[in-house]
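Hi R.,

Here's the input for the adenosine-5'-triphosphate complex you asked about:
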Amino acid sequence: ITMNVDMKLEPKTTSITDEYDVDWNQKLGTGISGPVRVATKRSTGDKYAIKVVVDRPKAQQEIQMHWMCSGHPHVVNLYEVYRNELQFPGESESQSRLLLVLELMDGGELFFRISKQHGFTERHAAATTMQIALAVQHLHSLNIAHRDLKPENLLYKDSSDESPIKLCDFGFAKLDNGDLMTPQFTPYYVSPQVLEAQRRHRRERSSVSVSSPYTYDKSCDMWSLGVIIYILLCGYPPFYSEHPSSRRAIDRSMRRKIMNGTYNFPEREWERVSEPAKDIVRKLLCVDPHERMSIEDLVQHPWLNEEVPDTLLQSPVFMSNKANMQDTIALHSSHVRNMRIPDRPSKLKPVESAVNPILVKRQQIMRQGEEGRKMHSPSPPPPPPPYIKAVRDVIACCLIPKISLNTEEKKTALIDAVARAVKEWSENEELMSALKEQSWNGTSFNDEVNTYELGCALKALLKGLALLEHQPR
Ligand SMILES: Nc1ncnc2c1ncn2[C@@H]1O[C@H](COP(=O)(O)OP(=O)(O)OP(=O)(O)O)[C@@H](O)[C@H]1O
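And here is the predicted structure with adenosine-5'-triphosphate in place:
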């Protein structure tokens, strides 16, 4: 393991094409930030993966976190970074972008790979879990929480049987100094605490102080691990909805199940799974974060250190049903997103620009006083910032029926509004996650959009923002 902890990675400002042949057309995978591409280093002929992100503070943070964790056998290596002005087709001007030169992971994503392995046994599941656990242990030992532990971010190096699996995508990773988040500052909490806290918060909105502390990002990583291990062992998720329409999102009945820790080990797939494997799942899917297993306990658990039975598992059977697997992945992704504590609190708006009727009134009175009590008609409140306006337009497209438009026109109007919102506010994690949840691919939606769900998610986002703006500073 090499340690980059004390070093800051300075992006090179020369053109990446001086040293690499980038294949702009071959896409290894696509995430919120766009496709990941293949490049060949001219001096050696070695191949790398190139992730291109717009040069923003969030991307710089991603690079710093990834750089600190890089060098571990189960973390995708980050070799170097370029800062280049790039203009992609369809863009009117070039933009400063950061290009991450990553270790090429050619063996596919975790669940996809397992869906093809018909001889997948509990012993394989334990070996896979150990590799993921070692990556998480490395991060947590550096006080970094990944906050986006999901199967799409666990990649195999190559297609050989011995291929290691490694963790990628540090887009949500952050230094976790164990800050206790209090409800007045966070619309989302660690799940299932997240759900309980939201409920309490709604009840207690009028009285601001809520004394009990909430938990840390690292325990969310452990919860995510629990869900991943459960799925590895049986092929379907531990918490699911009774309503088929919301199989990809967390609805009421599912919230209740998560909060109460209500899941089970259905006989058919689980009767042959060993007790130590179930013990790990129980200790990770433990509702109380203080009781939840830590990463140190996980890597020392007998299931990962002693002989594991070579029992065939049913998981590949479930995973090879593409629709099932996509639902499972989307659901886990939604779960991980809900657990994340947004980093908004530090970005409170200055009082002058807050759209708060009491403040506006106070400003008017002050202004009138300054102007020698000249009587003016009250000035209108300041217009909302462009990013708020853009999100409101998306909400309107989703929730206000426009009878005059046909289905195709409604879809176009929604796509235009979303594109504007993304342009104004792509650094907002909640906005981008809500869109990705609806299969937004950067320019359009891959699947049918659940406009009600999207509209409600964005309404909640703006509501959360208003709550923050109204906090006393
Ligand atoms: N080093 C790599 N080698 C091969 N494929 C990769 C590599 N890194 C990423 N990918 C592929 O690209 C996809 C997107 O990458 P990544 O998750 O880093 O991007 P993102 O835009 O941050 O995505 P997300 O939407 O998950 O936040 C991955 O799910 C994976 O399929």
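One thing worth noting: The chain has three domains: 12-104, 106-201+214-343, 386-469.

Cheers,
M.
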